[in-house]
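[audit] Reproducing an earlier prediction to check determinism. Same input, same settings, fresh worker. If the tokens differ from the archived copy the diff job will pick it up downstream; this log only records the rerun itself.
[audit] input (74 residues):
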Amino acid sequence: MTKLKLGPIADDKPVKVALELPAALHRDLMAYAEILGRESGQASADPVRLIVPMLERFIATDRGFVKARKSKAS
């Protein structure tokens, strides 16, 4: 089984997001949502709901950002 970086998406109050995505990125989000749904045993998540956890994960694991943020806070 494939191990994705995201786990199940928390059932949280939805927030409306309006942005333009390249078609290829949208297709990737749709595919990711489908695979995530299969892995978690749930229905496919709305691809838009993947954006926030993906961004949070990206920011949390970006060592350069974490380091810069810590040095700015000091």
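[audit] rerun output stored. Observation attached for the diff report: The chain has three helices and no strands.
[audit] end
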